[in-house]
Write a structure and sequence with these properties.
Length: 277
């Protein structure tokens, strides 16, 4: 049967000023790396930040923050988030550790995301960063139906394949009237350690071209740097090194651009009505 979510169900999360979705059209573009480092950078810049790992099929945020701590239940309805690197964080990876696969249909996903949004005691946050699964599926719809989303950051690489899919992500958010805060081009280039020359491994300028094509802000390039990969694998995000670290400069530039776009978004209303057949 067709169903429609009412405005009351899309009320803001108490205490959360801005909800920022980090999305991608396809996997493998470094979306979670961007989400984690964005959250850490915003926190280092002085904001109170939460991080919701909504990528339930590949919940890698705990690994990237080097935590396996179990969230604690306050009572039957409320959960305390885990804290790491100054962030309040929740992830299915903390509730379903190990290699067990998540084989869930839409209604179960809807229930879990609802609980992460509504039952977790986020407290007072300037930003709640939500790391979405790649693509345009059930989790994205649940988020849009459930809460007022301040805006979406769309992550891509310069490759033609990634850009073809990022169009779909942008169009999805536009169809449901969610602001696109901008496009981040990850893995943009590699700086040769021998000649210090720029090598465009996957192409050049396509992320910026895509942003211009859709009339949305370009939030910057993040280079291919082994330190970023090592930081993610070891649970030490490079943004934690601070803005003065050379490896983190592009991340902080991106974070400042996101903060500026969030500040420019009009106060969110009840959000769009999404019809599901």
């Amino acid at each position: 049967m067709p169903g429609q979510t009412g405005a009351a169900e899309r009320a803001p999360i108490p205490g959360v000023k801005n909800l920022v979705a980090v999305a991608s059209g396809k996997g493998g573009v470094g979306k979670t790396t961007v989400a984690v480092n964005l959250a850490v950078a915003l926190n280092r810049m002085g904001a109170s930040v939460g991080l919701l790992d909504a990528d339930v099929y590949g919940p890698n945020v705990p690994l990237m923050l080097n935590t396996s701590e179990q969230p604690q239940a306050i009572d039957e309805r409320r959960i305390l988030p885990v804290e790491a690197y100054g962030l309040k964080m929740i992830s299915m990876g903390l509730l379903n550790p190990g290699d067990r696969p998540m084989i869930w249909r839409g209604p179960m996903l809807h229930s879990v995301i609802q609980q992460f949004l509504r039952s977790v005691q986020w407290g007072q946050l300037e930003y709640l960063i939500v790391d979405l699964p790649p693509g345009t599926g059930d989790v994205q719809l649940t988020l849009i139906q459930t809460v007022s989303v301040t805006g979406a950051v769309v992550v891509t690489t310069p490759s033609v394949v990634a850009l073809a899919d990022v169009r779909k992500a942008i169009e999805m958010f536009r169809q449901v009237n969610v602001d696109i805060l901008g496009v981040v081009e990850n893995m943009s280039y590699f700086n040769c350690p021998h000649c210090n020359g720029r090598i465009d491994v996957f192409g050049h300028g396509e992320g910026q071209h895509m942003a211009k094509l859709f009339g949305v802000p370009f939030l910057g390039e993040i280079e291919i740097d082994p330190q970023i990969r090592i930081g993610g694998d070891s649970g030490k995000p490079v943004a934690a090194q601070g803005e003065s670290a050379s490896v983190a400069k592009s991340i902080y530039a991106m974070a400042r651009a996101v903060a500026a776009q969030v500040a420019a978004v009009p106060l969110a209303g009840a959000g769009p009505a999404v019809q599901i057949d």
